[in-house]
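Hi Q.,

Before the meeting this afternoon, I wanted you to have the adenosine-5'-triphosphate prediction in hand. No need to reply - just skim if you have a minute. The sequence and ligand are here:
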Amino acid sequence: MDFEPVIQTFEQMEQTSSRLALTDHLVTLLKKTPADMIGKVTYLIQGKLYPDYEGVEMGLAERMALRAIAISSGRSMAEIEAVYRETGDIGDTAGKVMVSKSQSTLFSEPMTVERVYSTFEKIAKTVGPGSQEMKLRLAASLLNDSTASEGRYIMKFVMGTLRLGIADYTVLDALALAFTGDKANRQALENAYNVSSDLGTVARLLATKGLAAVQSVQITLFKPVRPMLAERVSTAKEAMERMGDKAAVEYKLDGERVQIHKGKSRVELFSRRLEKITDHYPDVTKAAMSLACKEAIMEGEVVAINPQTEEYLPFQELMHRRRKHGIEEAMENYPVVINLFDILYLDGKSLTDLPYEDRRKLLAKTVKGKNGMVKIMPQATAAKPAEIDRFMASAIENGCEGVMVKMPSSTYRAGAREYLWVKLKREYRTELADTLDLVITGALHGRGRRVGKYGALLLAAYDPKEDVFRSVSKVGTGFTDEHLDQFYRELEKHVIHKKHARVDAGMEMDVWFEPVMVIEIIASEITLSPSHTAAKNAIREGFGLALRFPKFTGKIRDDKEAESATTTDEIATLYRRQLKVHSGAKADK
Ligand code: ATP
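Predicted structure with the ligand bound:
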């Protein structure tokens, strides 16, 4: 197939922004394309060589690209660089300096899509020492036999700056029109695209085997499925109304969505954007290998944790995992867990047509047993808004962003954002301006690097009316090794065999202390808590208050006795002030 008609279409598309006109241009091009080339042409239209999940990149350095243009145009690097400074785009630079060449190539063989595509493949696949030089030569050889406008697009493609302004959905429309004559068939194409994430293959199937073949496209291991998404609601009442009489309520963790593809002998991980991210989480990959199934596709949220307390940490902590080097060290310093929330495929069968509650049961079976960091997403069922609210409070206290509410009868709708899943997030986020001085009342033994020390401390605020210390937070972050040694030494004197009579706490600890030592804590905010006892019932019946993302500031307040610690009333006041700041901010909008 000649490259020329492709280029012409691209040029026309650059001139227009109307979606209808863009679709028309594409339809014309697709109709001109031989059936066996449809897949490749579809990828080229999208500015790629393969589907995204293959993670293939051209990898030609900018300087090398400029040199390729210099070599094939016979101009000096200085000249090319000057044009590049002016145009700001390597493709446009090629287009400009190659103008005079179009005459000479008029008499040579026309450039073909086959040659362009296979040279691109070679450029992408050339790796290792000396590969830049090799890539440069491949690019230059293509340019040598191209016209100026071909050269322009070739270099745009190679450098990833081809912007035709089309969404995948426009390509789907065009395919439906070109091969079935009816835009209504686009839904069948879209379904196939949603489960395969591979537009080129969908297009090739359609052109070579027809619509029925497209309709039979199934979920396939190692091809990522486009994720099902959630609509937003602002109250538990609205969430419940959307669900009907029953809802599955889950933690909404603030991490990274990961789709696990587990085969018999390998595991791959894909991001929400369908990129392969297996390298970011070798620990999750390894743990997934031991799940109780031969093959499965599952979804979950990876989240960073504090290994001592198993508290969830904010999303930012995952950034440390996005690296090529030093991943071993990052795994040690920034441990994660994955909480699985869905299963789409199991041992040869697609599960997407099953109701969510049935998928969840299968997921629970698959995750059963010890898989280290692979866990199942905490979930509750709710029939009333109050039950959603209650679960939401414990989710937030545990470091979540809010809850996901899902319809138990819903199938898995790949790529769709509908009210079958809704997200209910906490509405505000304020940094507590003040630090708090809290009393250490208990501790959990340390694990891993903290064996022989305390992993986390249970902290309490003082309630002067009843002269008791009521629990408000567990803290495991902000401690240096010296602190840990010091706490262990100093607290040893105060260890008691059961909870102190003046301590009011609803949770089990490994060690209890006399309430004497006061430390300074900073937190992101105060939240309602179903488990802590500070200011219980003061704000809402059945709830206490807790700290979200608490951290030791490094200051031991040995200048304060326990009775001078922050009081439960002060914490309730801070909570109310937070609400006021929030509603004030809302009123301003
Ligand atoms: P969206 O993914 O909806 O386009 P977004 O990227 O801003 O928007 P959020 O608004 O935070 O994401 O909400 C959806 C995301 O929440 C999911 O993609 C997933 O990463 C995450 N998530 C956390 N917990 C769950 C859960 N229990 N079920 C489904 N998704 C969850």
